[in-house]
Amino acid sequence: MPDIAVDYxxxxxxxxxARSLKGQVQHARESKQDYSVADVGSGVPTAIRAYYSVWKSxxxxxxxKLEKLANLYEGVARGWADWxxxxxxxxxxxxxxxxxDLYKTQKEIWDKWQEQVRAGNVDPDxxxxxxxxxxxxxxxxxxxxxxxxxxxxxYKYGEDGKPTKITTEVRTSTGLTSKDVTNxxxxxxxxxxxxxxxxxxxxxxxxxxxxxxxxxxxxxxxFKSVTKAPGDGGESTTTGTSHSVYNITTGHRDTTTTYTRTxxxxxxxxxxxxxTSTTAVDLNGHEVxxxxxVKANGSGTKTVVTDGxxxxxxxxxAAGDTGxxxxxx
Length: 329
Known about the structure:
Order of helices and strands: HHHEEEEEEEEEEEEEE
Number of helices: 3
């Protein structure tokens, strides 16, 4: 199957133009329709009133169709942008984390070398001596695609050199945006606020504990998130735990997250969904995310995302992980 390339910026532009045209049509329909002979001349006032009388309903229907067209294009644009923004945001965070860790490591090596120099244990002119890190500790990383679309991650550090606040924002030239801000505290707790491309706002509190064991960084995380949809879209609450093992040498990472989400379904009815998500990232950066969500009646969905490619199945026995049928069937 060939790859699909979607220019969601172009779709968003079309949506904006459709709404602009709708506004122009609405202005024409609602503008002044009664003129005097002194204003426009003999016979013209009657012609203008007749014109608006004939076309008023057509103008209204055009406005409705333009609004539906704008909603369609905007919906598709935001759907693809939401997926792309998540990838871009995670990539930016990883880049920032690697750069921050690299600077920290280089500085630690340089500082230890200087201690040895001061103690007279090493030759300060040794050509193989370590080099100091370049410039100041990095705080901002920005990626641009050359077309006005930017992804920016910003770090704030505490006195111990560890990040206390990480902000990631994605912004396109047509105004599509997403942003998340996470604050980290000395006791391992954290809080975050994220606004996605749809305007949903998710606030999260949790606690993460990381230990190093046999060349692995092992992180256990417990969290609670509340997501509020814009307007009267409702509110959902998610609680869960996550266990992640990161191999420092190979870069391989395995993460398992279990959670329970309570909130409105697509029809607005309250439901409770239990989910399990497993993520595997190998040393080449290939990522596979498998998520199974089970409803109260045992039915549910399985979604597998492989390097950004999504496959989805439905089953009446999702709780038993059997009976899966492709959503395309």
